[in-house]
Amino acid sequence: MTRSNRFTVRSWKPLAAIAAAAMLISPLAACGGGSGSSSADIPAGGTDDGTKLTLWVRSDKERQATNVAEAYNKSHKNQIKVELVPSEDMEGKVGTSSQTDSLPDLLSGDVVRIPYWASEGIFMDITEQIDGLDNKDDLQQGHIDAGTVDGAEYTLPFFTDQSVLVWNKDLYEQAGLDPDKGPSTVEEFYEQAKAVADLGQDGVAGTYVGGQCGGAAVFMTFPMIWASGEEVMNEDGTKALLDGGASKAVFKMYRDLANTKNGIGAGSQVENCSTWTTPFANGKIGVMPYAGASVATLIEAESKGGPHIGVSAIPGTKKGNGSSFLGGDAVGISKDSKNAAQAWNFLQWLTTEDAQQEAFADKGDTASNLKVIENGYKDVDERIQIANGVLKNGRTPVSPRFNEAFNASGSPWQILLQDQIWGDSGKLKADNQAITDVLAQ
Predict the structure, then answer these.
(1) Residue 256 and residue 253: Cα distance in Å, rounded?
(2) Which domains are delineated in the chain?
(3) Whether pLDDT at 357 is above 60
């Protein structure tokens, strides 16, 4: 398998569940021949003739999916019906439905799982249609790359999420820090987090970590490594590179905070994603990487008496532009769709500036069209513009085994993180190899 640009997050699924789902999906190419229509039948603009289309979406994307469907449905004869699938059930549902040729017309999924689905024949090849888009270069490319296998393109961006750095301006002022200047290096991150920790306030800590949350941890650390000029995996996504100099510096910074009183918030070591963002939102954390999609919520809370926040890209070991982990969901036409031309009408509409403006920018969500990112947020809070601006330096790691290596409960990545922050840091080489062993399967 070859891929172009390797530049995409989260699905916290028990390893056993992923393994079971993989067993369902692995024979897809052989068992699921695809009873749907062909991409050869698709005109450039698709077909809008009143067809009812079904779209599967992870349940945690309900608000965004509803906004998109409402915008499309009111302006087209075709109608999109959104079917929400519990995030933890999506893998198994896709596997089972693929074998019975009963996938929906349109299927969206976590970008870190898209490479596996694409390689297993879940989606229809729409290379000709994607390459024919006049505005392809204006789209966030990570979600296209995630669904590209051996030069064939299967997916487009759907929902974009990105990691950003946030800090509590109120705690910064109390700690004698400049509230308008967050850390521009990993070293400054440590210094500023420690300054907040040294306040000694009950329940207040310098930073917070998702110790048992693989997705939060990659959101947190990978951008720091990228911004330092190093990689987290090789180009093929089959080898971990988390034992390099930048990785060691990032892990040491967090380990030093763990050894500092109030340096890392209580509960971090066992945080399993369920409350990862809560301590900062409650005004108890000084500085931490955060989900960019939640910045608007923080700003809204600020207007109602919540903590005042600053936003920036996530820094590396040296001053520079910072980086971001680009996540979210990609979307494609399933192999089983009998309405490929109509499904493409929806997808090509989704890429347009008007659609991205109405369905995402006007709702405070992150658009995937870079022109809308640049021009469509003029009237929103500057911090949302900053959060969107990190996309240009963001990255999307691509590997068919990303979930198993990084996101699954008890994954080798989580073990590495536990060792590096709270355990035996001398295990880095061995823990990195354990991640490689999974990636290379």
Answers:
(1) 5
(2) 15-161+328-388 (3.40.190.10), 162-325+399-439 (3.40.190.10)
(3) yes
